[in-house]
Amino acid sequence: MNRINPRSFIKTLPMWAGIIALCLVTFVAITLITQHIFEYVPHSEDEVAYLFQAKVLAENRLTVPTPPQAQAFWSPFVIDYDQQRFGKYPPGWPLLLSFGIRLGAPWLINAILGTVTLALIGLLGYFYYCTDEADRSRCLVPLLAVGLGVVTPGFLFLSSSLLSHAASLFGVTLALVALFQTVTVSKYRYLYGIGVGAALGATFITRPFAALGVGLAVGIFVGGLVLRRELQPSLLLWIAGGGLLVSLLLPLFWWAA
Question: Distance (Å, rounded) from C-alpha 241 to C-alpha 90?
């Protein structure tokens, strides 16, 4: 695992140009799937609930009054309680989706997240597999990793939907990028550690169980490095602090709603 230095980065400019081109192809593919297959319409009960939550948040509200004859407007995963109507899901993805509502293009948020996630995956490939001993100008792992994403139907369709999977994957990938910096760069190490926790916290308020699973793996990994005295024990506290800072938005949202 290695840090980026300007000279080696210049040698890999053709690779980065290829990654950028593949990311642009991905964005176009997601856009076409959204337009011609999904037709900008939610196709599952989960998407309907997410879209409802996003519209409420776009109005700077957490809930809306239950409509008269509520059963006539019944929707799965949308809850009526104490004369207020709200979605049952954590607020992370609906909050992001609400920016798409404000722009008049809800589909755009997942398209951007999916595309940026592929770029981050390419960056991870560069970090982990383009070693100092290798000829960086011939390093193809990042390009192959991004290329696999471009031809993965599940990735393309989930990034074209209104579901939360793309946002969750973005958060996890961002956490892994920050984790690499945390364990390899001594300068600003604690800030990167906070970034790991914050990214996992953002994933937690989007898809909690995904964040818990990845967070457990990250905790074991960093804990092992601490036991081997390669990292300071206090780093675990910084990571946990960053995670708690964002994760506490979930109970705060439930309390406020």
Answer: 20
Closest CA to 199 of 218, 223, 222, 220: 218
Interatomic CA distance for residues 92 and 151, integer angstroms: 27
Whether the CB-CB separation of 22 and 147 falls below 8 Å is answered with: yes
Which pTM does this prediction carry? 0.92
Of 182, 185, 188, 184, the C-alpha closest to 239 is 182
Contact in structure between 30 and 110 (CB atoms under 8 Å): yes
User: Alpha helices, DSSP H only, in the chain?
Assistant: 6-11, 13-33, 45-58, 92-103, 107-129, 141-150, 153-160, 165-184, 189-204, 208-227, 234-247, 249-256
Burial class from Cβ neighbours inside 10 Å (0-12, 13-18, 19+) for residue 71 reads exposed
Q: Are strands 64-65 and 78-81 parallel, antiparallel or unpaired?
A: unpaired
Amino acid residing at 240 = A
Which of 120, 116, 145, 111 lies closest to 30, judged by CA? 111
Across-strand partners of 86? 79
DSSP 147-198: HHHHT-HHHHHHHHSSSSHHHHHHHHHHHHHHHHHHHH--TTHHHHHHHHHH
Interval 192-224: pLDDT, tens: 999 999 999 999 999 999 999 999 999 999 999
224 with 110: CB under 8 angstroms?
no
Residue 231 · residue 183 · CB < 8 Å = yes
Residue spans of the domains in the chain: they are 164-257
Q: What is the pLDDT of residue 1?
A: 46
Determine the Cα–Cα distance for residues 84 and 44; give it in Å rounded to an integer. Answer: 23
